[in-house]
């Protein structure tokens, strides 16, 4: 059983997965499920309600969502962080972590980034005959 099975049962099948598997309480992650339902207009209020009632046990939260949310197919891609080449450049040059590299990027100008790029340029990897 996976976390996706809970999401499918809340959206489509409406079957109780807590009765099927004893490990369901350990697998079910309310925060992740609530975050997923917060992307849709018709389920955002239910997700917010469960975030406000975080102290409820997992089965109660799951049952609330399973009974309250209408049966519907919902698909949404999760936002992923975009890789910033300038941050990667600063991390490589100064051996900083992401947070520190972001701070440095805010300070540096475009000309200074070009200087850093030139200083760590490793050359082409061409085989000349």
What would the keywords be for this entry?
129 residues, 9 helices, elongated
Summarize the structure.
This protein has 129 residues and is mainly alpha-helical. The protein is built from nine helices and no strands.
Return the average pLDDT rounded to an integer. 86
What is the general shape?
A: elongated
Q: Span from first to last CA?
A: 57 Å
Structural class: mainly alpha
Q: How many distinct helices?
A: 9
Number of domains: 2
Quote the beta fraction.
under 5%
The whole-angstrom Rg is 23 Å
Portion of residues within helices: 55-70%
pLDDT < 50 stretches? none
Biggest sheet layout: none
Order of helices and strands: HHHHHHHHH
The number of distinct β-strands equals 0
Explain how this protein is built.
This protein is mostly helical and 129 residues long. The protein has two domains: 3-68, no CATH class; 85-119, no CATH class. The protein has helices at residues 3-13, 17-20, 24-27, 30-37, 44-52, 58-68, 85-94, 98-107, 110-119. The longest helix has 11 residues, at 3-13.
Task: Outline the secondary-structure elements.
Elements: H1 3-13, H2 17-20, H3 24-27, H4 30-37, H5 44-52, H6 58-68, H7 85-94, H8 98-107, H9 110-119
Helix pairs in contact: 1-6, 4-5, 7-8, 7-9
